[in-house]
Amino acid sequence: MTDLVLAAAVGQVSTGEAVAFWVLGPLAVIGALGMVLARNAVHSALWLVVTMLCLGFLYVVNAAPFLGMVQVIVYTGAIMMLFLFVLMLVGRDASDSLIETLRGQRVAALVLGVGFAALIATGLSRSLGTTAVAGLDAANANGNVQGLAALLFTQYVFAFEVTSALLITAAVGAMIMAHVEKAKEDRVDQLTRMKERFRPGNYPGPKAGPGIYANTMSVAAPARLPDGNGAERSISPILPVRELTEIEAAPKGTEK
């Protein structure tokens, strides 16, 4: 019976589908292994992009163009690019993975990984067993998008709504965790900011460039005010300190 089912399944697969599977399947597996084995987080995310692209093309080949486009546009084009931007801005290296921020997370990850592998193996064994092969002809009778919408909002409407509620809850939870509430006394209004800016010691206007209206273009020469005096604000505070340090460090008798 199993041989008959496999023979019927092989007979339904066209040459193009078989070629696409044997080309994209190994690439997807290589991308998955690279994601797990890569020591750099950015490289791991790029390997995952390869796997998602291969899955999207496999969806298209198997008469599911809507799922393929969603896989490429949403997951590969939006979510993974967001991951890459976050990783490049925050900065992660291999040493970060050695720090266990949550107690027992390695054990939990190992248990969940074994459970997920067992679930995948069970699904594969059932699909390659006595289960009859069913294509997408009935679901795509009026078009792939129309058939997918009909299934989502009729037979799988409860699971679809639960998934949407879960995603909304995750988004709200992320917003709450990222929000930093300030105490009322810590909030600064515009009037306080203006007073802070114009308090004694702060110069509200732009500083004159060093060397302007002077006999030299050196950054160590102060600009000249209209009355002829030097504008000490035009010199960087570090220059006098550096000059004083050089004078103190110079051997005696060599000071200028």
From TrEMBL:
Main location: membrane
Entry's EC annotation: 7.1.1.-
Transmembrane spans: 20-38, 45-66, 72-91, 107-128, 148-177
GO molecular function, one term: NADH dehydrogenase (ubiquinone) activity
The reaction(s) this protein catalyses: a quinone + NADH + 5 H(+)(in) = a quinol + NAD(+) + 4 H(+)(out)
Pfam families linked: Oxidored_q3 (PF00499)
Enzyme superclass (EC): translocase
Top-rank lineage group of the source organism: Bacteria
Record membrane topology: Multi-pass membrane protein
Keyword field contains Metal-binding: no
InterPro entries: NADH_UbQ/plastoQ_OxRdtase_su6, Nuo/plastoQ_OxRdtase_6_NuoJ
Coiled-coil residue spans: none
Gene Ontology cellular-component terms listed: plasma membrane
Alphabetically ordered keywords of this record: Cell membrane, Membrane, NAD, Oxidoreductase, Quinone, Transmembrane, Transmembrane helix
Subcellular location, record wording: Cell membrane
Function: NDH-1 shuttles electrons from NADH, via FMN and iron-sulfur (Fe-S) centers, to quinones in the respiratory chain. Couples the redox reaction to proton translocation (for every two electrons transferred, four hydrogen ions are translocated across the cytoplasmic membrane), and thus conserves the redox energy in a proton gradient.
Family: Belongs to the complex I subunit 6 family.
Record protein name field: NADH-quinone oxidoreductase subunit J
Annotated source species: Actinoplanes aureus
Lineage start: Bacteria, Bacillati, Actinomycetota, Actinomycetes, Micromonosporales
